[in-house]
Amino acid sequence: MEREYLIVVMPRTAGNQAVAQAADFLHKNGFEARIVNWSDRTLLVTQRNPASAEVNGLRETGITERIVFPTSKAQLASREFQSKTSIVEVGKARFGADKLVIIAGPCSVEGREQLLEVARAAKQFGASLLRGDVFKPRTSPYEFQGLGEPGLKLLAEAREETGLPVVTEVLEPERVNLVAKYADMLQIGARNVQNFALLRAVGKSRLPVLLKRGMMTTIEEWLQAAEYILLEGNPNVVFCERGIRTFERATRNTLDLSAVPVVRKETHLPIIVDPSHATGTRDLVAPMAKAAVAAGADGLMIEAHPNPETALSDSQQQLDLKELACLMNELGAVAKAVGRSIR
Ligand code: PEP
Ligand code: MN
After folding, report:
1. What is the spatial distance between Cα 341 and Cα 94, in angstroms, rounded to a whole number?
2. Is 268 helix (H, G, I), strand (E, B) or coil?
């Protein structure tokens, strides 16, 4: 790849003054650097690649730790940049740790009783996060669009009662602050994976982000979408494979399970699988959930509803609460076989 940018890694101990000095050095040489607060240190990222003489000059100041010549367009996300797997924490849930993170909840928040019933069941069966959308990305504008802010308040109430952190989708940059007021994790849905303004906006928020794969997104494009978020200084990104669109119509989408080992190899960020949207059919959710765990996923997102037949969205694929309990039981053995656990 043609070198298009440069990453300057400052030492962990570097103060504001050293960062300013490095930025100033680059500025004097005609390079504007973006200052990124990475997990435990500061990075300076230039838009263009300085010539060797300038890089050497910066190195000689002795204030930098290392200077990285990126080999990919998603350098911050790459294993090359950080070999250690990142753990993304949301409340007590730790994506990327041995214990799998199971996210369960309805497709849409439909009302207080519906949400609380699923939330209590999710907690009881061992899930670590509650999901539920209040802003729905629907194919037709006549379909249920979600409850909006009152739904966010219900999510907060469910968290209060069960202790489960909540993840919910945000559709527009203008609504990031509103959703972040109530949620513990922001979801970027498949349809928005390359909405760059939205990616930048969630990157500016401090909340962890669940980044779904687009139905037409290659893994390479998906990693670059994550890079938009990381480059804003938010290192807490979790990938979610949810199926891609292929010629096959027996399932809603085609679950690309090989994305799990590929993403693990390419990046240090965790990856989970959503077998609900991937298959679109209730009875296919459990087999693909187990397959995802066997393939090395760091967790799952499962849609569940007290009465799926009456659901206002995705009624074909949501598990009822008995089915959710059953799946949670069965997952333990698969997790154990691959050195993981669900409790
Ligand atoms: C969802 O999680 O409810 C959803 C809309 O999923 P996706 O963006 O993967 O279609
Ligand atoms: Mn859904």
Report:
1. 12
2. coil
For 333, counting Cβ atoms within 10 Å of its Cβ (0-12 exposed, 13-18 middle, 19+ buried), the class is exposed
- C-beta of 190 in contact with ligand 1 (< 6 A): yes
In this structure, CATH architecture of domain 88-337? Alpha-Beta Barrel (3.20)
Tell which atom from ligand 1 comes closest to the C-alpha of 313: 3
pTM, rounded to two decimals: 0.97
189 lines ligand 1 (CB under 6 A): yes
Burial profile 95-132: b = 16 or more Cβ within 10 angstroms, e = fewer: bbbebbbbbbbbbbbbeeebbbbbbbbbbebbbbbbbb
Taking CA atoms, 47 is separated from 25, 32, 70, 73, 184, in Å, by 15, 7, 12, 12, 32
Give, in degrees to the nearest 5, the angle at Cα 182 between 177 and 184: 95
Q: By mean pLDDT, which of 34-48, 88-102, 165-179 is the weakest? A: 34-48
pLDDT at 29: 87
Q: Is 143 in the pocket of ligand 1 (CB under 6 A)?
A: no
CA distance 77 to 100: 21
Which residues belong to CATH 3.20.20.70 in the chain?
A: 88-337
**CATH 3.30.70 residue ranges in the chain?**
7-68
**What pLDDT is attached to residue 5?**
86
Q: How far is the CA of 187 from the centre of ligand 2 (A)?
A: 12
Q: Report which of 248, 258, 256, 320 is spatially closest to residue 283, judged by C-alpha positions.
A: 320
Q: Is the pLDDT of residue 3 over 80?
A: no
C-beta 171 within 6 A of ligand 1: no
pLDDT tens-digit series, residues 35-72: 999 988 999 999 777 677 778 888 999 999 999 888 89
Report the CATH fold assignment for 7-68: Alpha-Beta Plaits (3.30.70)
